[in-house]
Amino acid sequence: MLVGNKIDKENREVDRNEGLKFARKHSMLFIEASAKTCDGVQCAFEELVEKIIQTPGLWESENQNKGVKLSPREECHGGGACGGYCSVL
Questions:
Q1: b (16+ CB within 10 A) / e for 34-53
Q2: What is the C-alpha to C-alpha distance for residues 26 and 80, in angstroms, rounded to an integer?
Q3: Which residue from 71, 50, 45 is spatially nearest to 58, judged by alpha carbons?
Q4: Alpha-helix residue ranges (DSSP H) falling in 1-89
Q5: Phi, psi of 69, deg, nearest 5
Q6: Rounded Cα distance, 89 and 77, in Å
Q7: What is the pLDDT along the chain (89 residues), one digit of tens a residue?
Q8: Phi, psi (5° rounding) for residue 32?
């Protein structure tokens, strides 16, 4: 899944067609989203969960000892959102 973020900005680094083309080339689902306006955010999470549920290999016993590591949240200074990142182990 490829999520194009910050779609609320006027000057975008990557336009929609370029994102779609890249996603199709790599057989990926493409969703555009904006954390600021919440457009597409719920859709992105719902699609991700749906794909996880539809992928039996993720539920096999050899994968149960793996996990996700979350970094600590950063302090926010001023306006805007802050957050960490996650890595699949």
A1: eeeeeebbeebeeeeeeeee
A2: 32
A3: 50
A4: 16-25, 41-53
A5: -105, 125
A6: 30
A7: 889 889 888 888 888 899 999 999 999 889 999 988 888 898 888 888 888 888 887 777 665 666 666 666 555 454 445 444 444 43
A8: -105, 145
Note the pLDDT of residue 82.
47
| CA distance readout (Å), 49 to 10, 21, 44, 74, 77 | 30, 23, 9, 26, 32
Identify the domain containing residue 75 by its residue range.
Answer: 2-88
pTM of the model: 0.56
Domain containing 7 — which CATH number?
3.40.50.300
Domain count, the chain: 1
